[in-house]
Specification:
The chain is of the alpha/beta class and 284 residues long. It has eleven helices and eight strands. Strand 3, helix 4 and strand 4 form a beta-alpha-beta unit. Bound molecules: zinc ion.
Length: 284
Amino acid sequence: MKAALTQPATAAAGAQWIDTHSHLDAAEFDPDRDQVLHSARAAGVALLVLPAVAARHFERVRALAHAHGLAYALGIHPLYTPAATDADLAQLQQALKRWRDDPRLVAVGEIGLDFFVPGLDVARQQRFYNAQLALARDAGLPVILHVRRSADALLAGLRRCRVAGGIAHAFNGSRQQADAFVELGFALGFGGAMTFERALQIRRLAAQLPEHSLVLETDAPDIPPQWLYRSAEERAAGLTARNTPAELPRIAETLAALRGWSLPQTAAQTTANALRVLPRLRAQ
Ligand SMILES: [Zn+2]
């Protein structure tokens, strides 16, 4: 794995990719998880980062990472804060301590703030976000951030509690907010949303941000790319639009086209960026 990651640019056919955000533990993959992973590897996705979303998933993402040679992150997702408790924060603290020397544990995440989904208690989200930032800082780990209409509040938290950088995943903010994350040691995650021609702001960012600030991700099974999109009617009729990590190289073609890069160059640059912001990936 290490050799493959250090020689990503030898040929387009041999390009090696890192999916920096893949929920392989999700129930959507229960029927065929091994096949999904096999397809990803066959497509050249050498490594996946599996972020946890709740304390009850911690053992699961860790076991998956160890069984399949992947990386994982531990955290409580903002959409899971309504059901989360202080005991879950204590469990995160214990897990970070217990697995401190596990090279596959690469970050605290997925944590953050979601100001888009209605009905979430903002103060409660903030409390879990701040507490997890402090745990990441104390563990010396980067963080994987969920950003939805919340970039400024997330940045304020990062300025109060200096963590070792990380990734602002599925980034969809302004250029100014992007620059602020980069200044704090973050890369910005781009995935399926970038493949929609109407996603003008995301495509502009992908095209124009400094080359060292971009990483690729699928967020599988979510955020399907344009070619997997299903309308509300199609979904009502039972068609699904499950995203998988094997889509990453095709998603990367969009980034390559937006930047005027070759595919090997896109693989090499985004891989180098991922290894910089999640340094423990180098040990995989
Ligand atoms: Zn996610």
